[in-house]
Amino acid sequence: MITTGNKGMQPGDITVLAPIVSSGSAASLAFTAAGSVSLKVSITLGSGGNLIVSASGPVSQTAALTVPGASVLSSGTSITLTQTNQLIGAITFDSAGAMTQTGALNVGGAASFTAGANPIALLHSNQVTAATFNNGLRNDAAFRSATSLQLGFSAIGANLILIANGAISQSGPLVVPGTSSFSAVGNILLTQGNQFVGAASFNTGGPYDVSLSNARSTVMGASSIGRDLVVTSSGPIAQVGILSVGRTASFTGGSTSLTQANQFSNRVDLASSPPTSDVSLVNAIPLILGASTIGRNLALSVPADSTITLTGNVSASLSLTLPAPVSLSDYLSSPRSLPTRSNQRSRPSMAGLTRKGRPPARGSTGAPRPSMVPALRSRTSATARSAYPSAPRSAI
Length: 396
Description:
Blueprint: E1 2-3, E2 14-16, E3 20-21, E4 28-33, E5 37-39, E6 43-44, E7 50-55, E8 59-61, E9 65-67, E10 71-75, E11 79-81, E12 85-87, E13 91-95, E14 99-101, E15 105-107, E16 111-114, E17 120-126, E18 130-134, E19 141-145, E20 149-151, E21 154-155, E22 160-164, E23 168-170, E24 174-176, E25 180-184, E26 188-196, E27 199-203, E28 210-214, E29 218-220, E30 223-225, E31 229-233, E32 237-239, E33 243-245, E34 249-253, E35 256-264, E36 267-272, E37 279-283, E38 287-289, E39 292-294, E40 297-301, E41 308-310, E42 314-316, E43 319-321, E44 326-328, E45 332-333, E46 337-338, E47 384-385
Parallel strand pairs: 1-4, 2-5, 3-6, 4-7, 5-8, 6-9, 7-10, 8-11, 9-12, 10-13, 11-14, 12-15, 13-16, 14-17, 16-18, 17-19, 18-20, 19-22, 20-23, 21-24, 22-25, 24-26, 25-27, 26-28, 27-29, 28-31, 29-32, 30-33, 31-34, 33-35, 34-36, 35-37, 36-38, 37-40, 38-41, 39-42, 40-43, 41-44, 42-45
Antiparallel strand pairs: 46-47
C-alpha cells in the first residue's frame, strides 16, 4: 500500500514510473493519495490480485493494467483511462468528475460506473458484459460494448445511449429522465420496472426482438426492429418518431397514440385501459390488426389504396373507425356504432359477421348476411350500427 496525506505525511500526488509485476497469489496493490494518482507504466498483478486506487484528485494512466481480481478506482475529480486494460474481475469506477476513455476496457466481471453529477462517455469497443451507470444533474451517459450487455440498476442524469455488438438485457430497472437510445446486434429485452421519461428508441440491427416495460407513460422514438416488438406501459403510449417493425407488434397501456407514418409489416395487437382510454393507430402500409381490447374509441388509418385486415376479436366500448376496405377473419365488437369519416346514410346490417373465406349465414328471410364490411373505403365510408355482438365461434 502506498499512501499520501496520512498523519505525519504531507499531502501529495502519487506517480508510478517503474513497472510493477506481482507474482504472488491474491496479493493486493493499493494507492491512496490526497492529490492525484498517475499510473505511467504497466501494472501486472498475480492470480486473484486486487487493485485499489483512491485519490482526492484525478486518476489517470498511460500504460495498461492487468488485474485478475477486483479493481476499484475512486477519484474526487475525474478518471481517465487511455489504455486497453485487462481487468478480469469486477470493477468499480467512482468519480466526482467526468468519466472518459481513449482505450477499451476488458472486464471479466460486472462493471460499475459512478460519475457524481458529471457525464459518462465510454464509447470504445469495451469488452464488458454487465454494467451499471449512475450520474446526475442533467448529464448524459454513453457506453459501447463489443459483446452482449446486461444492465443492472442505473440512474442517469439526462440522456442514455447504449450500443452493444450483441443482445441487451437487464437485471435491474433503468431510471432515465431524458431520452434513451438502444442499438444492438441481438434482442433488446428491458422488462424490469423501468422509468423512461423521455423518448426511447431501438435499433436491433437484424432479425431480433424488442421488449419494453415502463412503469410510467411511454414515448417511443424512431425505431427499426427486425422482428417482434412488445411494449407494456403503466400509462399512455405516444410516439415522436416512426416505428418500423418487421414482424408482430403489441402495445399494452393507457390511451395510445401512434400517429406517425409507421411501418408495421405484420399483425398489431392493442390493449388499453382504463375505460376512458382511446387508441389511434396510423400505418403507412396495409394494416393487419390482431386481437385488441380498447377502453373507449379505436381509430385506424392507412393510405387510401391500402386495406385493413382483422385477424382477431376487436372490441371497443364506444366506436371503431376503419377508413379503408376491411377483411374480417374474426369479429368486431362495439356496443354503439362503427362510425367512419363520411356522412352517408346507408346503414348496412353488421349482424352475423363470419370469418373470411367461410360461407355467410342466412338470415330469417333467407338472404345471405354479409361476411365483410361493405364499402368501408377511405373518404367514401358508410356508417353501420352495431347489431353485431360477437357470434359464437362454434357457428363458424
